[in-house]
Amino acid sequence: MANPAAETKLDPFAEWDDATLVLGIETSCDETSAAVVQGGRKILSNVIASQTDLHADYGGIVPEIAARAHIEALTPAIGVALLQADVTFWDIDAVAGTLGPGLVGCLLVGVAEAKSMAAVLDVPFVGVNHLEGHLYSAMLSDPPVQWPSLALIISGGHTMTVYVKDHGSYEMLGGTVDDAAGEAFDKVARFLGLDYPGGPEIDRLSLLGDPSAIRFPRAMSRDEGFDVSYSGLKTAVINHVRKMEASGAEVSVPDIAASFQQAAVEMQVGKTMAAAEHMGSERVLMCGGVAANSGLRSALATACEERSLPLYVPPIELCTDNAAMIAACGSAMLRAGNYTGLGASADPNLPLIR
Ligand code: KG4
Ligand code: ZN
Predict the structure, then answer these.
(1) pLDDT tens-place string over residues 121-159
(2) Number of domains in the chain
(3) Which ligand is nearest to the CA of 61?
(4) Is the CB of 318 within 6 Å of ligand 1?
(5) Are residues 267 and 329 in the same domain?
(6) Looking at the domain assignment, is residue 348 inside a domain?
(7) Dihedral over alpha carbons 97, 98, 99, 100 (to 10 degrees)
(8) Does residue 287 line the site of ligand 1, with CB under 6 A?
């Protein structure tokens, strides 16, 4: 089948330049986002409509509610993104949308709208891998990351350490063998009775507690590889609290939050630095929602400083899900000529490395 995008007005090989405007669309989970990015680097707008309030009563994301909320929020978000960028539909050179991984009903909403828009505007559609999008959030910060780089992608759905050799060229070094880091933060927070999403709550409470109050296990720290495990740590926290409650002892939630965060951070930073050393990487990048964590940011910064390695961590608003990173990644794909065309479809299990 002919690639429909090949017939559209932008020839990515010939016409790419720093003025190219890409509209990004992100609906893989519980943020509806639309952004306009110029030249792959300059954010003209990045509108994020969070659904947190809709899911808070359930203590987690309800996929059906999330998909419906995307349908309601996406078109207005695109309108606002264009307005804030001070451009019109007709100025857009390409549309980039998240193909996966993510919740299938949510992905379908964004992909359908992004492809329709590309077809109507007669511009290319670029289907972006959400995880690759997270990596490109570091291209939007100042200074932008360069490849090659060791990268830690740490979010609610994924925790992986990869070596990015170049655009689209990855070597998987390690990852979680069970829960993703954000999932563990959210589950521990829920057990402690904190609001959803729990990661930021644990982070906030950690500042009030003593990180050395309880010594939770640092799973897999003696293993040779670069994998981590969050499930054992989560269970250790739950068992500790149950034991304290059973004995009638007072449970300090800030101390537990701080001790849990400390164990998670030590484990993750240790494995990340070991992977960076193993690869002889000249720089380290951290991205994804959990990269917003203050303890992780400062511990990784210290570890990198000790080894004189530059660390690239995007500002917090670019760590959590957003469409600017999708537009940035889509721009790099366009520049490299590997855009997908309208034949691409949503894939909830889309892997980073095929
Ligand atoms: O990247 P993201 O927005 O969505 C996914 O692709 O998963 O990440 C969301 C995750 C949630 O688990 C949330 O609790 C966690 O990132 N998170 C944090 C913090 N801010 C967000 N975890 C720990 N500390 C934070 N400050
Ligand atoms: Zn994400």
Answers:
(1) 999 999 999 999 999 999 999 999 999 999 999 999 999
(2) 2
(3) 1
(4) no
(5) no
(6) no
(7) 180
(8) no
Q: How many Å lie between the centroid of ligand 1 and the Cα of residue 69? A: 19
Decide if 156 is inside a domain: yes
Spacing, Cα 154 to ligand 1 middle (Å): 8
Q: Which CATH number covers residue 207? A: 3.30.420.40
How crowded is residue 25: how many other Cβ atoms within 10 Å of its Cβ? 30
Residue 310 amino acid letter: P
Q: Answer yes or no: do 51 and 161 share one domain.
A: no
Verify whether ligand 1 is closer than 6 Å to residue 155 (CB atom): yes
24 token code pair: 């990004």
Q: Which two tokens stand for residue 52?
A: 């947190």
pLDDT, tens only, 58-88: 888 899 999 999 999 999 999 999 999 999 9
* Euclidean distance between CA atoms 201 and 101, whole angstroms: 26
Q: Whose CA is nearest to atom 22 of ligand 1?
A: 199
- Does 173 map to a domain? yes
In-domain check, residue 346: no
Q: How far is the CA of 186 from the centre of ligand 2 (A)?
A: 14
Q: How far apart are CA 184 and CA 200, in angstroms?
A: 12
Q: Are residues 305 and 325 in the same domain?
A: no
Domain that holds residue 113: 21-138+318-335
Task: Tell which atom from ligand 1 comes closest to the C-alpha of 189.
Answer: 14
Is the Cβ atom of 29 under 6 angstroms away from ligand 1? yes
- Alpha-carbon gap, residue 309 to 306, rounded angstroms: 8
* Same-domain check for residues 245 and 304: yes
User: 302 alpha carbon to ligand 1 midpoint, in Å?
Assistant: 22
Q: Could you give the CA distance from residue 210 to residue 252 in angstroms, rounded to a whole number?
A: 10
